[in-house]
Structure prediction request, 410 residues.
Amino acid sequence: MKVIIHDLGPEYETLIEQKCGQAVAADGKYAPCQGCFGCWTKHPAECFMKDKLNQICRIIGHADELVIVTKNLYGEYSAQVKNILDRSIGTSTPFSTYRDRQMHHTLRYGKHDLWKVIVYGEISEAEKATMLYMAERNAVNDGYERSEVVFLDDLTELEAAL
Amino acid sequence: MKTVFINCSPKKRFCASAYFLFLQSLFVGGKKVNEKLRTPADHSRILEQLKDAKAVVFCLPLYVDGVPSHVLRFMEEMEVYCLENHMELSVYCVANNGFIEGKQNEPLMQVFEHFCAHAGLVWGGGVGIGGGVMLNVTRILFVVDIALLALNTVLSVVNTGMFFNKEAWISFAENAALLLYFNLGVLFYLAGMGRAIGKGTYFGKKYTRILIPSFVFILFADIFFITASVLEGGIFRGWLKKKELEKA
Prediction:
């Protein structure tokens, strides 16, 4: 299944939904992660906060291909998108292992295929390098075989990039 | 000189960021202000504190290889505030993560560097710490060590009438030395960054970790999570299963 997380407005909803099996709108109408680890230790793959991200790790966990459409923020994801990723650590288990010669958590849903990031908004060359590095790290951390980052000059290029 | 320390952990209490904030503040002179950043309600109060500060130290956990989302929201607001008020502020960062490699904090450090470029602030560098949660536990163990010394001293007075119990003190010293050893890398770099903060100079990006072998760390991390999952009941609720989405 292809999952798209995006911070675009409702005018892009139809396009996004045509391009994936599951769309998640990063509209900011949810709370940030509280760092309690309850999605590992208390109620597996579920957050104690009963908002729209309550079971987000179960959606992301089933993704073969995860596409993240985000506005650039200092070479990071936008705060709304990052909020969703922060709330999704239940895609892994609390057990530790080595991947890519570093410590990571074992994967609840097994290996995935592609972690793809589509970045729009002004971005410097240094921030591009950070975003590439970030996507690479995320892919290893979350058990994706490969990562890809596409930088858009403007959102008219979005459909082709999806 | 005023330095503002911001504890950015979303946890209400007993967070590793508070521990590292405490250690970092030991190595910084002048006026020091501690702030807690958990919700947007904290933003205006912290920004007001930054107005006459020379340096700000962000103490934060690594979330999904980057900056936690609630901190990103604050940084966006801080950028606007700093540009409007033509602030001259040096920004330092103490980041910690649950994995053993401090180097895993590198993307977060880069994000802070880019933030400074946008906000017209001076990037002072940071320390990335691996094994943050376990280092935080060492402070509890130190308190337990002190409590055991006190207990042994009381027992010694009751049983022998002697206040000084040599064996108890040796045991206390051995345990304290071991805990200190685990923290040595962190203390070394935080001391260096403390000097840089005092002088307003660039410290660079340094990475360190709890000083134990990785395989021992992983063993203890697994034991920690098994224990927590038994106590909180997750182990009996499909602990490692591929959970399906429950339709509302």
